[in-house]
Design brief:
The chain has 720 residues and is of the alpha/beta class. The chain is 42% helix and 14% strand. The chain contains 28 helices and 23 strands.
Amino acid sequence: MDETVFLAHIAEDGREQTVDEHERGTAELCAKFAAQFGAEEHAKLEAMRHDDGKNTDGKNTQGFQRRLRGGPAVDHSTAGAFECFRANAVHEAICIVGHHGGLPDVGNAKMDTPEDGTFFGRMKKAMSGGIEEPLGMDRPITALPRPNFYGDRFYESVWIKMLYSCLVDADYLDTENFMSGGKAAREEYDDMATLLAYFEKHIAPWANPQGELNKKRWEILSACLAAGEGPRGIYTLSAPTGSGKTTASLAFALKHAVKHSMQRIMYVIPYTSIIDQNAKVFREILHDKNVLEHHRGIVFDKEDKNFDSADYKSALAAENWDAPVVVTTAVQFFESFYANRSSKCRKLHNVTNSVIIFDEAQMMPSENLLPCVAAISTLCAHFNSTAVLCTATQPVVDDYIVKYAPNIAIKEICPEVRRTYEQFKRVTFEQAGELDDVALAARLGGHEQVLCIVNTRKAAQAVFNKLPKEGRFHLSTLMYPEHRQKTIDIIRQRLTDGEVCRVVSTSLIEAGVDIDFPTVYREMAGLDSILQAAGRCNREGKRSRKESMVTVFTGEHRAPRMLKMNISAANSAMRGEEDIDSPEVVRKYFNTYRAYLGDGTDKVRVVEAFEKDKVYGMMPFKTVAEKFRIIDQNTRTVYIPLGKGVESIARLRSGEKSRKLFREAGRYGVTIYENQFETLYYSGCIEMIDDENAVLINTGIYDEKMGLKIEDSSNINFII
């Protein structure tokens, strides 16, 4: 090899890519990505220096060129970062230093030592001669003017992370393209104008709606289409349960994306239980290839030999969210936003210049409310995105939005909120006070068709066991999805046929389950949960309001600790009110709840960590990534080998893995908490498939009515 030629990659077929070729290819892509938020030149700079550390021949040290031919691993990230650092291109240097190992904590310029893993520690190590100097470098660095962050350290941290995301995605893609010989099988998607045309064709038959309810839904849909022509910013869609918010919000998103030449639509959904059905709706309207469903329950493995072409393309798209419509969970979205690893961060830049719909926005976790809203606001204020907070019970977060997006007005898509809610009033509320299990079961037994929603699985089981056996049903997430769905199908049919049907369920039925009862009982919870439950009563408006009763009661079982503030705020807001679903009462509830939370909306002080160096040190990317979790408690999946799940689960046990297989087996999986998983493991009831998943081998503990029976050693009643 000529000493002046330094290689970045060697393909399996022997082809060679030089460092210069790789950096220029990466720079082209990186600049294209960063153009979405006006940072092209910064992106070019970081990309053109990110692999300078590969210009080491290993004559006197273990250089990268030796590594290419089987030598030991070497640090090739610090050299280019140090070159940028010396030229005062600090932001670019931070991105380069972490482009493989993850964004580090920036640290303390005065206190950090060369032994520290912080950015400043790495720079001090380079200063002291702790890295090999790259050879043949004759490209001087000219630092670029920094964006005006207006003293907003949080915005600055997000800008760095976006620049980092552009770099790592461009790096991956250029490498992928070279190694595949330009044959990487990424999907070719339809553009937004075409997707809008698909949508307009889909809704065309609805233009002359029949029936009052469908007329009202068309009115909301039309309002969303009109609002889509409005400016970028932050919107709210305050529409009651049953008003068609999912389709209406898609109407806004498509119209808005076409109007402003935006690159994609993101749907962020709080429940994995409803993500499948929403994604299915979008696929039916927009065609399968244009919709990426990405959450923990979908396993993507590019190396799987059982993958078909569509699977492989989806696996590639999941890495960087480059599909025009991405449906994901709040966990995936926000934990990716605060992540520091390259594999998680590479997709973030694709959130810029996008329409982001937050479905059931009131479900944003209270202990992480501030970091979630800060992320949304910053994306809209500085990265050309538009957010829609879509909910039947609009949370009160205006003050947080104003803090992080002070120049953006919050616009309501359906401004006549009071009239809209009045139009969709389909039930009468009753506050029944305290009811023990016996009294509750007696009242439920007096109805031919009734739904009762309680706060814990323990309460659900207790009440269910006291009901008359004829026509009684139980629902919880301890039943695998296929079992739950079959039960729901039976319930729907019995409701249609006028047969006896008494259902006791945990909160899983409150959102995303299209089911219609004449009477609903809801154990005291947050007002948002109560109103979601009310959406299962007289859903299609076929009965009069007086005939459709929603009874709110306090049960005998102790409320879970995590619900106590919600219940207290709901009691305060509902006291003396007949119309507990009015916008005024709902707003009072959220204001009261926020007052109770006080400073408890940022549990691990994420935002403060970036705003103030005193929390975890300067720009603590790594530390925050380790601490920030939407869901604190880890969960695992237990597959239940019953019914049609026997075959697919047997294939999993044999070592076979594919997206299709995991999707099939997932219909027979139960997600449980870590302590519950350990209980089953140490009792010999399950067999491990991999580090996260197991198969139930003692099927005798799966009940055809109740689902998986677990003796919880911690004696905690979890809400699922």
